[in-house]
Amino acid sequence: MQKVKCIITYDGSGFAGFQIQPKQRTVQGELEKALTKIHKGSHIRVHPSGRTDTGVHAKRQTIHFETSYDIPEVNWKRAINTLLPSDLHVQEVTLVPTSFHARYDVVEKEYRYYIWNAKEPDVFKRNYYYQFPYHLDIEAIQRACRQLEGAHDFTAFSSAKATTKGSKERTLYQVTCEKHGSELEFIFRGSGFLYNMVRIIVGVLLDIGQGRRETADIAALLASKDRRLVGETIPPQGLYLWDVKYEE
Known about the structure:
The protein is of the alpha+beta class. The protein has helices spanning 27-38, 73-83, 138-148, 197-209, 217-224, and strands at residues 2-10, 47-48, 57-67, 88-96, 106-116, 130-131, 150-153, 169-180, 183-190, 239-246. The protein has 5 helices and 10 strands, in the order E-H-E-E-H-E-E-E-H-E-E-E-H-H-E.
């Protein structure tokens, strides 16, 4: 058996998320359909570094699959891409040891969230940015970002629907917000993320930027471990799984 690792990129606009679902178009569904065709009808299961929701994009998502075929890396890439739709693409293929696992071996993930902060919406950005027309105090947001760095229990910033068992503690190495013209870019690098965590955090940061919350609220919310004290989960289209890192 050969284990194959792929780095894939996709535009999440046309997918009902990564995970396979009946009667829905998903990233996993399209990948497995292509691999099953290559394997002449034998079903091949793909394992991702993690799932993304409906409308969420990926610059560098990682998957692996097992195969009895002995095919060079460059040929795998060509064969899979020939069968994939135009909004999903394999960037890199590597043959890896059988011990490798796309999900369990992750050491760091990076997510980015993009906001179009202008009075007038840009219709061409509607699937790729969260359009937010209100004035924001960027310095207040940046101060709040620093409060989120380090190891914390992020229960309050996790979806109530999350199925994660065990500790909700995660370590964030970087939480930053920069404004370039009308574009706001949030960067989150961490050991791992809970379900909807980035979208919930950005929602709170936007409240702080509008003066609806104080920077000091971050510590209180983390200590509370109560999702009900935090606002709505903001929309998915501004979110990108940017990179996934493994031990060399």
